[in-house]
Amino acid sequence: MKAVPAIDPGVFRRALEAALRRMSDGSLVVFSGAVAKARSGSAFAASKLFSGVDDGSSVNVAVRNPSDSGVYVYLARVSVLPGGKVRVDVYSDPSILGGSAVPVLGLGIGYGSPHAELRSGVTIVTGSPRLTLSSATGIDIVPPGAVVVPPGHRLVIKVTNESGAQQDVSLLMTWWEEPG
């Protein structure tokens, strides 16, 4: 098994402080570049509520960046909000089938459409998780911009209910796109 490198607390604190900003009214801005991205029409958000997910069942959401998009997709936030304990598996470039489109909101109202495509209910045909997390209170999977989906690639988030009962699961994603 490959060893995971330790994170220096001082480096982590400085990186966190650099990412967190306060507005003049004292409100916290987690990703200060979001306003500029929204104004340029390159910031987007999508959410999906999965109601009544049975214990032991999974739900999947895919983020696909078409090979002809001409942009890189920078995930600003991927949050899973369960009603109980869940396991989250993140797949990089798995083979997938089916699914239905998830509506996307442009954060710069009235600007263009995203290049990235989101689909819920996809079936993972082949692939292994690159990351697995477990929580009963909610999970933020990525810090802003830490995961980049280049043209021609996809990311799948698989959420498995491990609560012992049926529960609702919500998934929230925000991202921006930049020419590559």
What features would you describe in this structure?
This protein has 180 residues and is mostly beta strands. The chain has one domain (9-19, 28-179). It is 9% helix and 51% strand. The chain has two helices and 16 strands. The strands form four sheets. Strands 3, 5, 9, 13, 14 and 16 form a six-stranded antiparallel β-sheet that branches. The protein has a six-stranded antiparallel β-sheet with strand order 8-10-4-15-6-12, with no helix packed on it. The longest helix is centred in the N-terminal third of the chain and has 11 residues, at 9-19. It is globular and about 45 Å long. The chain starts with 8 loop residues before the first helix and ends with a strand. The relative contact order is 0.33.
Share of helical residues = under 10%
Give me the secondary-structure category.
mainly beta
Number of helices: 2
Low-pLDDT ranges: 1-5
Radius of gyration: 17 Å
Tell me, what's the shape?
A: globular
Overall domain count: 1
Give the ordered list of helices and strands: HEEHEEEEEEEEEEEEEE
The amount of beta strand, in percent, is over 45%
Distance between the termini: 35 Å
